[in-house]
Amino acid sequence: MWKCTFCEKTNFDDQKVCPYCTAPNPAAQKPASAGTPEHRAQPQGGATPPVQDWASRYNPDPKANKKPVKLDQILKYLVIAASAVLIIYLVTMLFQKPGAKTDAAISPVPDQALIVQQTAEQETPAPTDTPVPTDTPAPTREPVVVDAVTELYLDFGQTYQCTTKDFVLPYDIANDEVTWRCADNEDGTTCTKNGKLEAGFYQVDPEMRYNEEIIVTGTTEEGSVLTYHVYTGDGETYDFTWTSGRSMKNYSGAVIACSPMVVRCSGFTLYYKYELTDGKLEANSWSVWVRENGTEWVRVQDIQVENQVAEAHDIVFDRPITFSEICIQPETYSYNYSYQDAFLIAYMIFY
After folding, report:
1. Distances (CA, A) of 317 to 268, 269, 300, 330, 349
2. Are 205 and 257 part of one and the same domain?
3. Residues 184 and 200 in one domain
4. For residue 137, which of 15, 104, 194, 244 sits 20 to 30 Å off, Cα-Cα?
5. Cα distances (Å, whole numbers) of residue 273 to 127, 173, 303, 343
6. Which residues contact 264 (CB under 8 A, 6 or more apart)?
7. How many angstroms separate the CA atoms of 296 and 280, rounded?
8. Any residues with CB less than 8 A from the CB of 221 and at least 6 apart, and which?
9. pTM of the predicted structure, to 2 decimals
10. 164 near 175, Cβ under 8 Å?
């Protein structure tokens, strides 16, 4: 075998020329000499055969020997490109989201599931812009500050339930929204946080029909303030003055008269002071008496009193007593003495 040096094709050994390019085989056996040059046959007409330039023939100028592009190859490439474009389009349609626009001319036949889905979407009505109803939050209420419609007068020990119905309000406030509190006072009046109001048992000043005003306040979390103006008492006033001409036990002298008669009283606070002007007192023990029902003297309590020392003494009865007079006398064994005294009755107890 031998390889052509011009077209580089492989050929059989016995070939003298390359069957592909007709170039001579340099290794082929040369024929026997036909004799001396002068006896060789000469071409007719004396013409000289052309000499083949195998090197230029098989190493041509690329631009000179460039082969033209064949039409069938162009058509083949066009078919391949069109097939690729079609395949890409089909793949895109397969993964395309439902509802996307497609080319009706080359759209592939959808499967049954896709047909059902598209039919359902067409039958489903398009959503409207109507908003979904939601729970409307309660409007924020502006805090209010309101007094009760009328002032509240309570007898001693009387109870009252505070309520928002006693107030003119711009909107409803439930009773359980309010927390109640009673201001500090001398009457003994109290109020629970749920609004149960209980009047005290003290008439602080006997000359006043009702005790001084008490403020009871209800508040809400949003800041509203509801206010009661409360007065406690039974509407009665009392006048206590010295009167003379009383004698009892070893005592003879002035007593304290009550006008009018005090009904069912359980005690009072006695402010008392004396100044010894003559004689001598053996002890500081004194006794307090009341004249029950205006007839009988009842000893209610003993107190300790020092000369020229003013003190307050809480006199508490063991039962409610109706009385018209009060007597304060020293417990002494000396009969030769004289004094001047002063008193004040306050905080009368009624229960």
Report:
1. 9, 11, 6, 19, 10
2. no
3. yes
4. 194
5. 95, 55, 12, 7
6. 320, 321, 322, 350
7. 30
8. 177
9. 0.59
10. yes
